[in-house]
């Protein structure tokens, strides 16, 4: 799940709803911190950020009920470039009756929050291409893209055309969403993605053209 915000105006606020589908009360607390996404998709998280207000910071949700959490940006109204955060809803263990005989499992729910500056447009450029084999041995194309703008990009909001001698393949935004998910590319960063099509055995290299259609 992800939430799109802007550093100023009505979109500097958001609401996130958590539903308790269990048959016991659910106690959770909110923890938020900066997120950095590496080229291979690995995420680093630094907690305790003060740029947000989350109300309520903790809640006990009855079985079958929902709880709305209001998220408010408190940082600078004019930021130079998009910033990304992870909001974790962490379960707080509640001591059950006869706890000496039970093992209690707890969980974390993560929500990606992107905060964009009020001015700017995302851009994605293909900087390298390759071919890899997946677990089944199928040859898959890879593209590494770079975001040269001050606004974060979501790779699945693109369509891609792959071309080689005697072969071409177009990939729609919907296909990328199904297989890649959010596909965040932060400002000034690169990301490498494996695409959901097969490359024929006789294709050794290909050209890739990307068309980004951001939805904000």
UniProtKB/TrEMBL annotation:
<dbReference type="GO" id="GO:0071555">
    <property type="term" value="P:cell wall organization"/>
</dbReference>
<dbReference type="InterPro" id="IPR013783">
    <property type="entry name" value="Ig-like_fold"/>
</dbReference>
<feature type="domain" description="Pili assembly chaperone N-terminal">
    <location>
        <begin position="10"/>
        <end position="109"/>
    </location>
</feature>
<dbReference type="InterPro" id="IPR008962">
    <property type="entry name" value="PapD-like_sf"/>
</dbReference>
<dbReference type="InterPro" id="IPR016147">
    <property type="entry name" value="Pili_assmbl_chaperone_N"/>
</dbReference>
<protein>
    <recommendedName>
        <fullName>Pili assembly chaperone N-terminal domain-containing protein</fullName>
    </recommendedName>
</protein>
<dbReference type="InterPro" id="IPR050643">
    <property type="entry name" value="Periplasmic_pilus_chap"/>
</dbReference>
<dbReference type="Pfam" id="PF00345">
    <property type="entry name" value="PapD_N"/>
</dbReference>
<dbReference type="GO" id="GO:0030288">
    <property type="term" value="C:outer membrane-bounded periplasmic space"/>
</dbReference>
């Amino acid at each position: 799940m992800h939430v799109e915000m802007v550093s100023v105006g009505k979109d500097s606020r958001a609401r996130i709803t958590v539903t308790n589908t269990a048959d016991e009360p659910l106690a959770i607390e909110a923890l938020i911190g900066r997120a950095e996404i590496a080229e291979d998709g690995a995420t680093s998280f630094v907690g305790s950020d003060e740029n947000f207000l989350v109300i309520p910071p903790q809640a006990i949700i009855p079985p079958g009920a929902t709880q709305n959490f209001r998220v408010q940006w408190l940082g600078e109204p004019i930021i130079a470039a998009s910033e990304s955060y992870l909001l974790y809803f962490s379960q707080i263990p509640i001591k059950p009756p006869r706890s000496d005989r039970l093992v209690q499992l707890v969980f974390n729910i993560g929500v990606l929050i992107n905060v964009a500056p009020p001015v700017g447009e995302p851009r994605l450029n293909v900087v390298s291409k390759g071919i890899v084999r997946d677990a089944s041995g199928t040859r898959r194309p890879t593209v590494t893209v770079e975001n040269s703008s001050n606004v974060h990009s979501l790779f699945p909001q693109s369509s891609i055309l792959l071309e080689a001698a005697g072969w071409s393949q177009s990939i729609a935004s919907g296909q990328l969403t199904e297989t890649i998910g959010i596909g965040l590319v932060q400002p000034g960063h690169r990301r490498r993605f494996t695409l959901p099509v097969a490359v024929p055995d006789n294709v050794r290299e290909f050209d890739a053209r990307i068309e980004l259609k951001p939805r904000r």
